[in-house]
Amino acid sequence: MKVVITKDYTEMCKLASRIFAAEITLKPDCVLGLATGSTPVGMYKELVEMYNEHRVDFSQVKTVNLDEYAGLSGDNDQSYRYFMNHNLFDHININKENTNVPNGTAADLEAECERYEQVVASMGGVDVQLLGIGNNGHIAFNEPCEEFPEKTHVVNLTQNTIEANARFFASMDDVPKKALTMGIGTIMKAKKIVLLANGAKKAQTIYDTVYGPITPKVPASILRLHPDVTIFVDEEAGALLKK
Ligand code: F6R
To answer: d(Cα 144, Cα 166) in Å, to the nearest integer?
Structure first.
């Protein structure tokens, strides 16, 4: 695992975006694994800027997102499909048919998880997977638990995550309590993984991820067993690593 402490959020986003741009340049039809949340917004802006400057071409790129809230349709402005369209896909020349987000309104959520797992497999796996990290160490919506979940599954979000997500919703009652998420096994199959974290709230979980025991109680800790992971943190998120 490689850890890069950047001077600030802007530098973190710039460095991470270069890894994605390099992958697209080397393999124009690559499969990118994408994340939502506050953390990657700046990196997506960088990619849009590179696209506008004709430095990167998304026309053959395929994408798979990590997760989606159960019960929210793609046109709900809090859904992750909406987030991806709004922050990235609407601003680049990607073919939307090549972009995949789990369907949060599928009648049978378990069947949707199976379908999604097949979609990822049928694309030949993910070339570069982007991850954020929850304050509690979750990656995608794999919450702290007793065993690492392997495949795409329906998850009950923890109170910690529901509270962290509440900032985007009008009231606590509106915050979804369930989500569909890629499993840890699905994520670990990616050839390369890039994890981003910024802000003091992430400092402890970044420390635990890098130095603590490898345990499903800190889901991101499993990344230490992956052969090609780079963690980019700003000074605040990396503060405990330096002591
Ligand atoms: C989002 C996702 C989540 C977030 C995490 C951090 O697709 O999978 O694991 O990456 O909750 O969220 P932010 O970036 O909002 O702090």
So the answer is: 19
Cβ(161)–Cβ(155) under 8 Å? no
Cβ distance 121 to 150 under 8 Å? no
How many Cβ atoms are within 10 Å of 242's Cβ, its own excluded?
Answer: 7
In the structure encoding, which two tokens stand for residue 7, read together? 């001077």
Ligand 1 neighbours by CB, cut-off 6 Å: 35-39, 66-67, 132-134, 138-141
Kindly report, residue by residue over 126-167, the tens digit of the pLDDT.
999 999 999 999 999 999 999 999 999 999 999 988 998 899
Read off the pTM.
0.96
Give the chain's count of helices (H) and strands (E).
7, 10
Token code pair at residue 186: 């699905």
* CATH of the domain spanning 2-130+138-200+224-231: 3.40.50.1360
3 state SS of 69: strand
Let me know: does 126 contact 87? Beta carbons within 8 Å.
no
Q: Report the alpha-carbon distance of residue 128 to residue 235 in Å, rounded.
A: 24
Domain ranges of the chain: 2-130+138-200+224-231
Residue 138 designated active-site: yes
Instruction: With a cut of 50, list the residues of the chain below it in pLDDT.
Output: none
> Closest by alpha carbon to 138, among 239, 224, 216?
216
User: Pick the catalytic residue: 23, 46, 65, 67?
Assistant: 67
Q: How many CB atoms lie within 10 A of CB 17?
A: 22
Å from CA of 23 to ligand 1 middle: 22
Residue that is written with structure tokens 């990167």 in the block: 56
pLDDT, residue 243, reads 64
